[in-house]
Amino acid sequence: GPEVLSVQDLVKHYPVRRGLFAAPGTVHAVDGIDLRLMPGETLGLVGESGCGKSSAGKTILGLTPPTSGVIRLNGRRIDTLSRGSMRPLRKDLQVVFQDPFSSLNPRMTVGDILAEPLRNFDVVPASGRDGRIAELLDRVGLPAAAAGRYPYEFSGGQRQRIGIARALAPEPKVIVCDESVSALDVSVQAQVINLLMDLQRDFGISYLFIAHDLAVVEHISHRVAVMYLGRIVEIADKAALYARPQHPYTEALLSAVPRPEPGRARTRIPLKGDVPSPLNPPSGCRFHTRCPLAIDRCRTEVPAMTKLRPGHSVACHLRTPD
Ligand code: SF4
Ligand code: MG
């Protein structure tokens, strides 16, 4: 297909050893997810903390090997590649993490931080590097003089801009944004989101945008996938998902998002308790322990992902095509 990134039946399980109060077991972090990302598209990946969205991101990035499944970048299978064979392909698959401070080497100047990917991926000849660094800084809204300074000299928002410049340096096709704006103040979040959208418009970059904040995801995404305990429970075009959510979990998450127009407030659907442990996920529909609509069948039967209409699929026994 024409997708720049695709994930088929991706599984990430990892064993945990016996702990002080816990028996050994297997964490079902990601349990068979399918995703496709088109050129120039932003796919939001949302869910509460502990739903597996960061594990999915790390596995897709090759930072941890999948248990099973297929990951393709530009049509080429990457999940089976060794670290060494993957290295040159990483040019096209970059990441912006939540905390730029921990991901930027404090002993390196911003110029050195940006020179690294330019050199590693041979993006420009050595003679053109300083010019390219200035261009990158300009693209993310920082002055050229920032190149001579260190990460600690910048604010959180500016550091995130440096992280974005570093991800942008190899001219990637895909950037995985893992809670990239979650640590920032709301006004700074909006600026960084707008920057990401400008870069997408100008360079055709695709984003896998992982976040727990549904308001932020609504602004930047074209499509949104909702994850619960390792599985995708709903995926739809942004407008449809926010206007007509079909999965009770999506409805509950959305009902907690404040709406700007007072007349259109949603009825609040409280989520009972916390996300159950991914060590022993509930049988049947994994959401049944918290679902206000659960029926007997939900405890035993796994709901299949069902296409309700073009571009809108959901995994719930109560939702069937019109
Ligand atoms: Fe709720 Fe059952 Fe639908 Fe799961 S399948 S979301 S438990 S109604
Ligand atoms: Mg996380």
UniProtKB/TrEMBL annotation:
Keyword Transmembrane attached: no
GO molecular function, one term: ATP hydrolysis activity
All residue ranges annotated as the ABC transporter domain in the record: 5-254
Location in the cell: Cell inner membrane
Main location: membrane
Keywords: ATP-binding, Nucleotide-binding, Transport
UniProt entry tagged with the keyword Nuclease: no
CC annotations in GO: plasma membrane
Pfam families (UniProt xref): ABC_tran, oligo_HPY
Gene3D superfamilies: P-loop containing nucleotide triphosphate hydrolases
Superkingdom of the source species: Bacteria
Membrane topology: Peripheral membrane protein
GO BP term (any one): peptide transport
Protein name: ABC transporter ATP-binding protein
Organism: Primorskyibacter flagellatus
